[in-house]
From TrEMBL:
InterPro entries per record: YbdG
Protein name: MscS mechanosensitive ion channel
Organism, as annotated: Advenella kashmirensis (strain DSM 17095 / LMG 22695 / WT001) (Tetrathiobacter kashmirensis)
Keyword Membrane included in the entry's annotation: yes
Repeat is among the record's keywords: no
Lineage, opening ranks: Bacteria, Pseudomonadati, Pseudomonadota, Betaproteobacteria, Burkholderiales
Transmembrane segments: 20-48, 68-89, 104-126, 138-159, 165-182
Length: 222
């Protein structure tokens, strides 16, 4: 069974140079990826969003109005690019370049999908008044920062062709710098968790903060 575009060309009696064959292969891959993009974004996603936005469950409605599925579809396209590259593109610089691009593509959209999921959970918690005594925004922002740093490490490892373990082992000196940069958000998050865990503040408690011209009852939390 003939599995690659070069095999199809040979079967059709077309004798092309390796460079021309590569161009044809890349063109077929581009057409297939464009077709996949159209099916996912203008077919599957449109149908799913239409159904989910009218669902009676709030969480499913929020998913339907979010960008989660769009990022997931882009992730699928990155997977398809990597698969087609492994199957059809001969070993060489183009092969390695496309594989690296597909890995970075998948990393970026995995992180974006994770961010979208966190935003959905946060919105659902606020609308349902679930765990509002906890600093949910601070926790979500911290998770996003951690995911972003991890994503940058993996992307750099793909670009330089080294294991991410090597990069992580060399971040010891940068840890102190990062702690200094994000000192205030970290202190705020820790303080919020301590207040929530010890139940030190409740809605209705009277607060006086002359520095911020605040003097009145606590109306919201989180």
């Amino acid at each position: 069974m003939k599995d690659t575009p070069s095999d199809w060309l040979a079967l059709a009696g077309l004798q092309l140079s390796p460079y021309a064959t590569l161009i044809v292969t890349l063109g077929i891959m581009l057409l297939l990826l464009a077709l996949l993009h159209g099916v996912l974004h203008y077919g599957v996603l449109r149908m799913l969003r239409g159904r989910m936005r009218n669902d009676r469950f709030l969480f499913i409605k929020l998913v339907g109005h979010s960008s989660l599925f769009r990022y997931a579809a882009m992730l699928v396209q990155g997977l398809a690019l990597g698969l087609l590259t492994r199957l059809w593109v001969p070993p060489g610089s183009v092969h390695e370049g496309l594989l690296g691009f597909s890995r970075i593509w998948m990393l970026v959209y995995t992180i974006l999908a994770f961010f979208a999921f966190l935003d959905i959970v946060l919105d659902w918690c606020f609308r349902k008044q679930v765990a509002v005594q906890f600093p949910l925004k601070g926790i979500v922002q911290s998770l996003k920062i951690i995911a972003s740093i991890a994503g940058v490490i993996f992307i750099v490892s793909v670009l330089i062709g080294q294991s991410p373990v090597i990069l992580i082992s060399g971040l010891g000196a940068m840890t102190a710098v990062l702690m200094l940069i994000f000192k205030d958000p970290i202190l705020g998050l820790v303080a919020g968790i301590q207040l929530s865990a010890n139940n030190m503040l409740s809605i209705g408690d009277w607060l006086e903060m002359p520095k911020y011209n605040a003097d009145g009852p606590l109306l919201i939390s989180g």
